[in-house]
Design a protein that fits this description.
This protein has about 300 residues and is mainly α. About 75% of the residues lie in helices and about 0% in strands.
Length: about 300
């Protein structure tokens, strides 16, 4: 399949997961996998599709079965593809599946020591373009690199804060720096999906620190973003990243689309608050009740 064909298949199946019985869509996925079992870019995207919709399977045991299917697809891509970048991405997704399946030791065995020294190839590529007088291409390479490292940094810092919840001073400082980074790059407009896990993680952390006031404050920011962003969410550039749209459409298989249907994303964002046991102590709190009510209105 071409990238455009893979994109269409992914979008169709993603929409089907939001509107059709899960078992029926899984059969559609498996039929596609069987038909294109030697198309490694497709297998990778099908694995991602299964990961992103495994929570719809109906219970933890069934979800783990779907994750195991996804893991097997990533293993095949990692073992048999000759595309170095695709192999790297498949390895990372296989590691994610292993974590979700409760096998952290295997993740450490697979990843420990890999990519320890980060040398951005975008720096070298940009210099090469400039030496050839191709300034626009040098600019585009820098922009896509900055964008990808920005998303990676915000994700890594969000995970880092979860490791520092027992140290209030460090926890607060991480939040200060994430907020500064998000403001500098106007992430709320550029890529709001990066902020949802940050706000949620912050709220959960402050619950662990027995600070329900701060927890509610971050849940309110989370809710305000959920109800004010333009749905469906898409990936896009802005005034600073003014070459990004071309890269998304030409180099990313899914283009500007998010990996899950907008309806499913909104539903999961409501459940992440309303059904989260971490916030059980807030159920009688009027502020929390208003938050849940606003989120449920967005779900509709």
């Amino acid at each position: 399949m071409t990238n455009e064909e893979i994109r269409k298949v992914y979008r169709r199946l993603s929409e089907n997961f939001a509107r059709q019985p899960f078992a029926e869509v899984m059969e559609q996925c498996r039929a596609t996998i069987r038909e294109y079992y030697s198309c490694f870019p497709l297998l990778f995207q099908m694995g991602c599709l299964l990961v992103n919709h495994s929570m719809l399977a109906g219970g933890n045991e069934k979800a783990q079965e779907i994750l195991q299917e996804a893991r097997e697809l990533f293993t095949r891509v990692r073992s048999e593809s000759r595309d170095v970048e695709l192999v790297r991405e498949a390895r990372n997704m296989e590691a994610f599946c292993l974590l979700s399946l409760g096998h952290p030791e295997e993740v450490i065995t697979m990843l420990d020591g890999a990519d320890r020294l980060l040398i951005p190839q975008e720096t070298l590529l940009s210099l090469a373009y400039r030496m050839l007088g191709r300034a626009k291409e040098a600019e585009a390479v820098c922009q896509t690199g900055i964008y990808q490292y920005l998303t990676a940094l915000l994700s890594l810092m969000t995970h880092y804060q979860e490791s520092c919840v027992e140290n209030r001073a460090v926890f607060d400082e991480i939040h200060r720096r994430i907020a500064a980074l998000a403001e500098a790059f106007r992430v709320e407009k550029l890529h709001p999906a990066l902020l949802f896990p940050y706000y949620l993680s912050a709220a959960q952390g402050y619950m662990a620190l027995d600070d329900s006031g701060k927890a509610c404050a971050y849940l309110e920011q989370y809710t305000e973003l959920v109800v004010t962003v333009d749905w469906p969410l898409t990936l896009h550039g802005d005034e600073f990243f003014d070459t990004l749209d071309d890269w998304l459409n030409n180099r990313m298989i899914l283009g500007e689309a998010m990996p899950r249907d907008g309806q499913l994303i909104r539903r999961s964002m409501v459940e992440a608050v309303a059904d989260n046991p971490v916030f059980a102590a807030l159920h009688g709190n009027p502020a929390f009740q208003r938050i849940v009510e606003r989120l449920r209105q967005c779900e509709e």
